[in-house]
Each structure stands twice: as C-alpha cells, then as structure tokens.
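Bumping my old thread because nobody answered last time. Still need a sequence for this structure:
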C-alpha cells in the first residue's frame, strides 16, 4: 500500500473487520485490555502457588546451656597497685583463684560437653605491683565436681584434669582435689543433674587475659558458648608477695 492509499469500510459493521488480499493461516483478534487481564490472572495464580507451596523445614535452634560462672579463692593472691587495673583493665589474680562453672541442661535434649578452652585476649609481660593474699580458702564440698586446669600460656589452652596437668608441668596447679582423678572430657549433662567444673590456671611468665569457651554438642548440633567474664592470671612471683 502506498501513502495515498486508504482503507475504509463504508457499510455498517458490528465487531472486528479484517481486510486483506490474501490470508494464509488463521486470523486472531484480541480485544483491547485482554492481554493485561491475562497477565493479572497469571500473576495471581503464581502468587497463590507460592503462598501454598510447601516451604523447606527450618531446624529449630538447639536449647541453650545454662552456665553459672563464679570465682572462688583457693588461698589466692590479688594483684594491687598495677597500672593495667588502675587504667580500667581486669584485676589480676594468681592461678589459685579457681573458677567454678555450673553447667545445667534445661531441656530433655542430649547434651555432651566436649571441651573447655581458654580464648586468650592478651599476653603481656609480668606486671609490677604487690600480690596480696585473699582472706579464706576454698572449702571442699561433697558435691561431685570435675577438677580441671588450663595452662594459659600454651598455644591452644585447653582444660585437662588437674592430675594430668600437674604430670605435664611438674607443678601443683592448686586445684583442690580430695578424690581420685576424674575422667577427662567428654561429660554428659542431663536435665536436673548439672556438671560442676572447678578450673585452676597455670602461668609462668605471662600476664594473660582470656575468656572461657565451652564446646558442646546439644541436640546433635555443635555449639560454642563464650562465657562473659574476662579473666586475668598473673605469675605468683614471691618477690611481689605483700606478706613476705
């Protein structure tokens, strides 16, 4: 068709009209707006399918361990008059300051304690100051406890039984033991039957800061519980004893 050619229908017409010289195949007519309605329908169907489509199951979070952390003196000494604690850092104690951990399982899930580690936050030269003996010493209890020790200066400070630590270092680690050597990890924690850990520390020349990390399997999943308190253990240098 040229530009001067027009195409018109003069007779009254109701409905669509097609004028063509030759038609091969079929002719399809789509009323205005039909494609948009089809698109809206398709989107609605897809949205309904997504809403009802089964979603993958999400594994629930394992139950949290309840860990009570407290420090008890075993004739320990406290560092006073040093610059680091005066500047707001943690107070230093000798390794006789035993930490007691009470680990409880609040659920019926199976809980197995795999290890207790020291995560070192700082290794510093020995501090100046005076080591003052704290009043009182830890008293023995009839409660079943696990007596452990951590050599904080080791590359990977991990708790072992006190007798194993003393055999390895040749030094007393001041963990109060009145019972036969307890087995080492793992320990199973059942509901209503907590595990009590008494942990002593060994340092020779390091003024060390660290936190304790408890590794466990809870309901089949490995969890690492970082305990909040920052501990600081200093060497028991007799020249710094205030009562010598």
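Sorry it took so long. Here it is:
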């Amino acid at each position: 068709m040229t530009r001067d050619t027009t195409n018109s229908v003069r007779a009254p017409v109701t409905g669509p009209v097609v004028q063509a010289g030759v038609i091969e195949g079929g002719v399809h007519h789509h009323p205005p707006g039909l494609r948009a309605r089809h698109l809206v329908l398709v989107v609605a169907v897809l949205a309904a399918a997504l809403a009802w489509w089964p979603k993958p199951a999400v594994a629930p979070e394992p139950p949290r361990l309840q860990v009570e952390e407290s420090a008890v003196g075993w004739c320990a000494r406290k560092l006073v008059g040093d610059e680091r604690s005066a500047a707001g850092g943690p107070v230093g104690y000798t390794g006789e300051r035993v930490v007691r951990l009470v680990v409880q399982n609040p659920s019926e899930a199976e809980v197995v304690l795999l290890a207790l580690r020291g995560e070192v936050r700082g290794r510093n030269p020995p501090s100046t100051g005076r080591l003052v003996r704290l009043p009182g010493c830890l008293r023995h209890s009839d409660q079943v406890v696990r007596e452990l020790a951590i050599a904080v200066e080791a590359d990977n400070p991990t708790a072992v039984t006190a007798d194993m630590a003393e055999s390895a270092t040749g030094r007393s680690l001041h963990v109060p033991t009145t019972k036969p050597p307890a087995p080492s990890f793992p320990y199973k924690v059942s509901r209503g039957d907590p595990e009590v850990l008494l942990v002593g520390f060994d340092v020779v020349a390091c003024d060390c800061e660290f936190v304790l990390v408890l590794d466990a399997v809870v309901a089949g999943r490995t969890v690492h519980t970082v305990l909040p308190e920052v501990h600081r253990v200093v060497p028991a240098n007799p020249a710094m004893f205030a009562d010598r």
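The mean pLDDT is 78. Let me know if any region looks off to you.
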